[in-house]
Design a protein that fits this description.
Helix content: over 70%
Structural class: mainly alpha
Distance between the termini: 109 Å
Shape: globular
CATH topology: Rhopdopsin 7-helix transmembrane proteins
CATH class: Mainly Alpha
CATH superfamily: Rhodopsin 7-helix transmembrane proteins
Number of strands: 0
Length: 325
């Protein structure tokens, strides 16, 4: 039985989840960037970048999708806007995904091979360079896919992103590369490395008899697990079915379910900031301070009274009764 969700309901659900997600993103970025100690700690760099790009994605692509659901047309019906829309949708999403892929891999290094990052050169090769590559590669690939290839034949203002998604598949090699390398493989890698990290920590702690300093590495583990859970729960069903289509399964098989899941797919974006918030030290007190700031009662100052003790009263009375000279 097909599940139909009207565009107005799709738009409303997006708005309901988008607003708290944006506020959470600002909250997380503020605390990570204002605190110099957190900002300079290389263990938090991937979280900061992930939440930042996710916020960009929400304020552009998600907002434009909401507008399309409400009106049935793009925000601006021009080829340049449509190309910008599809470019941000694909490139920024892939940047976020690759950052989380490297986060899943880097956590193994930070917990079990921290000496690999002992020197400046090693930190550049194993920490900064992968982050730079994760940000640059999607921009280069989708610049070619959408701006260098001729996409004019697929322009359609009645569909999301004006139908420019199909531009990637004009060239079969580019389309297959995008499907496998940019869509299927990263999600599988996130799940595989996250599960492997959980198993590795469990086995090592048992063998080492608690010699692994769990308190020191607990945050590193908790940084990754919520993000990995998003990909496992929200994205994996779509990825599995998409992989089956890529391998030859007829696209009419479970077509309604796949269509629904491609909509649900976006909700993972809304939960990323909350997963990133787990990484904030002393999160509970930070939330209390925020709550207190918004709900701080207005205290009306009480009228000042002058309290006089018995000695002062006695002295005042004595002065008043004293005969004048």
């Amino acid at each position: 039985m097909a599940i139909y969700i009207s565009n107005s309901l799709r738009s409303l659900l997006f708005i309901i989840f988008l607003i708290p997600s944006v506020f959470c993103s600002i909250f997380v970025l503020y605390h990570f960037l204002v605190d110099r100690r957190l900002r300079n700690d290389h263990r938090h760099h991937l979280i900061i970048l992930t939440v930042f790009f996710n916020l960009v994605y929400e304020l552009t692509d998600i907002v434009w999708i909401i507008y399309f659901y409400e009106t049935g047309t793009p925000l601006i019906s021009t080829p340049s806007f449509c190309l910008t829309w599809v470019f941000i949708d694909f490139a920024v999403y892939l940047i976020i995904t690759y950052l989380i892929v490297w986060m899943a891999i880097e956590r193994h290094i930070l917990i079990f091979h921290s000496n690999w990052l002992a020197t400046q050169r090693k930190r550049f090769l194993l920490h900064y360079f992968p982050m730079i590559l994760a940000c640059i590669y999607p921009l280069i690939f989708y610049t070619y896919g959408f701006f260098i290839q001729d996409c004019s034949s697929v322009l359609d203002y009645t569909t999301t992103r004006c139908g420019y998604v199909n531009c990637l598949y004009i060239n079969p090699v580019v389309g297959m590369w995008d499907s496998v390398v940019d869509y299927i493989a990263p999600t599988l890698l996130i799940v595989i490395f996250s599960v492997a990290l959980a198993l590795r920590i469990f086995i090592y702690r048992r063998r080492a008899r608690q010699q692994l300093h769990w308190r020191q590495y607990k945050k590193l583990f908790l940084q990754l697990m919520p993000l990995s859970s998003i990909y496992l729960v929200m994205y994996m069903p779509t990825i599995v079915l998409y992989t089956a289509y890529t391998c030859g399964l007829p696209t009419n098989v479970l077509a309604d379910f796949f269509s629904l899941m491609t909509y649900v797919y976006y909700f993972g974006t809304f939960f990323i900031p909350f997963a990133g918030a787990v990484s904030l030290p002393d999160l509970k007190n930070k939330c209390k301070k925020l709550f207190w700031f918004w709900h701080r009662p207005q205290v009306v100052p009480a009228p000042k009274t002058i309290a006089l003790n018995r000695l002062q009263i006695s002295r005042s009375a004595a002065v008043a009764l004293a005969p004048a000279n």
